[in-house]
Structure formats: C-alpha cells, structure tokens
Design a protein that fits this description.
The chain is an alpha+beta fold and 291 residues long. Helices cover 53% and strands 26% of the residues. The protein has a four-stranded antiparallel beta sheet, with no helix packed on it. It has a four-stranded antiparallel beta sheet with strand order 7-4-9-10, with no helix packed on it. A two-stranded antiparallel ribbon has the order 5-6. It is rod-shaped. The model has no long low-confidence stretch (mean pLDDT 77). This is Chromosome partitioning protein ParA.
C-alpha cells in the first residue's frame, strides 16, 4: 500500500515538473518572439535614421557649395553627420541610441530648413537686385540716349548758328578807270590808259551775327603772278599772305558795301586776278582783263 502511495506521488511531481517546464518554454518563446520584434523595429529605425542622415549630409554638401559665408560652420556639421553614420553603422542600436540619433536628426533638419529659408530669401533678394539693376541700366541707357540726342541737337544748333552767323562776301566787282587831271573818272579797258582800279564788295551777315571788326586782305595778281598795289605781307602763323591792300571793316549786323581805289602805274595788258581773304581764308575772287 505504501509503495502505491509513493508511485502516485512521483506521478504528481512529474506532472507538475512537466507543466512547469512547458510554462518556462512558453515564456522563453514569448521573450524571444518579443525580442525579435523589437530587433526588427530597431533595425528599421536604424535604417530610417541612416537614410535621414545621408539626406542631411547631401543637403549640407549643397549648402557648402552655395554659401561661402557659412562654409566653415557647415563643414563642421557635415563632419558630425559623417561621424554619426560611422557610429550607427558599427553599433547595435538600442532605445537610448535611438533617442540620441533622433535628437541629432531633428537638430540637423532645423539647420537644413533654416538654410533653405535663407537660400530662398537670398534668391528673392538677388532677383530684386537684378530687377533694380536692370531698371537702373535701362534708365542709364535712356538717359545716355537722351544726352546723346541733346548733344547731337546742340551740335546741329551750333552748326546752324555758326553757319547763320557767318559773314559773307558777295558782289565782288572791279572797275578799271582813267582819272583825268580834273579828277573825272572814265571807264576803260585799255592798259595804256588805266591808272586807277576800283574794287567793291558787299559784306553780308544776319540778325544773329554779333557786331565785330573784320579784316579783309585783297590780293591783285597780274598774268605773271606778280602782286600789284601796296605789296605787303601778313604772317598768320599757318601761312604767309602777300596782299595788295588791307581793309578793316566794322560790321554792325547790316550789309555794308566796301570800296577801295588802287592807283596803278605802268600796267600791262593781260588777265588780272582779284582774291579777297578773311584773314588767311579765301572768301571771294574775280578776274578782269586789259587790252
């Protein structure tokens, strides 16, 4: 009877041990299963963090190439990201590491967002500056065209004034005369009788011509290229002028007739040339002939 009782006790103990073992195995499996789930979640988060760190690094690389003012600070931040990537690739991630990396990623995101905002503002400012520059260039170009037009108009006006205010010589005439002992004048074209040459011309200006004194030099040349008359010389620096007589005319905005008489002696027949110079500029000429 005692033996039967012992056998029953052993069975009960075996059943209890089996139940305990089964419970332990079930609990161990649950722990292992939960660990695997946690490991997969952490690895997924790890890959997500690596991806975000790489994006942040690319953004920093772009910012370094575009922002010379903050280049040194950006290079330091890029190195921090590189160090984090090396660290996370060589470390089994846990919850504490996950929090650390997420915090760093958020900080980097804020930096990149700030840089992006600054970049957009700089782009906006540059576009505004470009518009202002283009407007300034347009205004300057229009101003230059206007100034060039004014200069051209002034030059045209000055030309008109110079041309309009120019004093001209017209109606240059010669008369070969014989002056008798009584003082009477007789017109003749015979060289043997001529003893007086009368030269007349009109000095003409207009209302915009200022009153002035004009110097006219009259040159009379015979057929042998000899100067007849007073035979004077005037040095103008650029040229030396030989002339027969000189006339100073006081011009006062009104046409004026100038007359001069030159006494002639031993005049030969032939062609004669009369040139009138305003200083050294030839302004009128004519000819006459004696028989």
């Amino acid at each position: 009877m005692k033996i039967i009782t012992n056998i029953s006790s052993i069975k009960l103990i075996s059943i209890g041990l089996a139940i305990s073992l089964f419970c332990c195995l079930g609990f161990s499996y649950k722990i292992y299963h939960d660990f695997k789930i946690t490991e997969r979640i952490l690895n997924a988060k790890k890959n997500e963090i690596i991806s975000e760190l790489k994006k942040s690094k690319d953004s920093l690389e772009l910012a370094i190439s575009e922002n010379s003012l903050l280049k040194t600070d950006l290079i330091i931040e890029r190195q921090k990201v590189t160090n984090l990537l090396d660290e996370i690739n060589n470390t089994n991630i846990d919850l504490a590491s996950l929090i650390k990396y997420k915090t760093e990623i958020n900080r980097l995101k804020n930096i990149v967002a700030s840089l992006t905002k600054e970049k957009l503002q700089l782009k906006k400012n540059n576009e505004l500056l470009k518009i202002q520059r283009d407007s300034t260039i347009l205004v300057l170009t229009q101003s230059k065209k206007y100034n060039d037009t004014l200069v051209a108009m002034n030059e045209d006006l000055n030309r008109v004034i110079r041309k309009g205010s120019k004093i001209s010589i017209i109606n240059l005439k010669t008369s070969t005369l014989k002056q008798t002992k009584s003082g009477d004048l007789e017109s003749t074209d015979k060289a043997s009788r001529v003893n007086l040459l009368q030269i007349t011309f009109m000095v003409v200006g207009n209302k915009i011509t200022k009153p002035c004194e004009k110097e006219y030099y009259v040159q009379i040349i015979d057929s042998k290229n000899n100067i007849i008359g007073e035979k004077n010389t005037k040095n103008f620096g650029v040229m030396i002028l030989n002339y027969s007589y000189y006339s100073l005319v006081k011009f006062k905005n009104e046409s004026l007739e100038v007359t001069a008489e030159i006494t002639l002696e031993n005049i030969k027949k032939g062609n004669y040339f009369v040139n009138v110079f305003d200083k050294y500029n030839l302004v009128s000429k004519t000819t006459f002939a004696l028989k």
